[in-house]
Every structure is written in C-alpha cells, then in structure tokens.
Design goal:
With 134 residues, the protein is an all-alpha fold. It contains six helices and no strands.
C-alpha cells in the first residue's frame, strides 16, 4: 500500500479538528455580526441574506463532518456514528428541555443557540465515550 493511500486516514483527525475550528470560528463571527448586518442592510433582500448568513458555516460544518466520516476506516466510522447518535439525543433533549423551562418563565433563547448546544454535547459525548472505551 502506498503512503498516499494511508495519508487520508492517518491525518483525518487532525484535518477534521482544523477544518471544524475554522468553520466554528466563522459561525461565531457571522452569528455575532448577524443583527448588525441586518440593521445595516439598505434593502429587504440584503437583510434576508444577512439573516441566513449563519447557515453557510453550519452547512460547511456538515461538509467537514462528512469529509471526516469518509476518510476514516470502518471501525472508526462505527464508533463515530455511535457517538453522534448519543450526542444528538443528549443535545436534542437539552434543547427541548430548555423550551419547557422557557414556558415556566426563563428567557427565550434564539435558535442560534441550537447548533452550539449540539456541538458542545457532541464534544462532551466524544470525550466521555473516548474514556469509556479505554
């Protein structure tokens, strides 16, 4: 087997971390500037474009995850999907639970917080599963 055939698997984790950090920073920046961009938009079409702008890094995150999944071997793919399934359940439960708490008087949160909530639950689940598998 040639070294170039091994390289995608060997560097998949490192590339994933780098790519995800870049698009996460882009998401944080765009989400933070979104309201300002909407206020500065001279017409309604640009305001709509500014309001949907945070979706671009979210789709980029999906692309980064897909690339990582395609680069890893079958065993790592299985472990990755297990972690993803558990973290999706935890993150979705947290988001739904908070919406019930908002009905009880806590402040409403913008949907902008859904993706960071899912990402943090994914990161924590990944760490817990990593140590549990040892």
């Amino acid at each position: 087997m040639s070294p170039t055939a091994i390289a995608p698997v060997k560097y998949a984790g490192r590339n994933y971390i780098i790519e995800m950090a870049i698009v996460s920073l882009a998401y944080a920046g765009v989400a933070g500037l979104r309201h300002w961009l909407i206020a500065q938009a001279p017409n309604h079409a640009l305001a709509i474009a500014a309001s949907v702008l945070p979706a671009v890094p979210i789709w980029a995150m999906f692309w980064v995850v897909w690339r990582y999944y395609r680069r890893i071997d079958e065993f790592e793919q299985r472990r990755f999907l297990e972690t993803l399934a558990i973290s999706f359940g935890v993150g979705s439960s947290l988001i739904c639970t908070y919406s019930f708490l908002a009905d009880a008087g806590l402040p409403e949160l913008a949907i902008t917080w859904a993706w960071p909530t899912l990402a943090v639950s994914w990161a924590l689940t990944t760490g817990i599963m990593h140590f549990a598998r040892r």
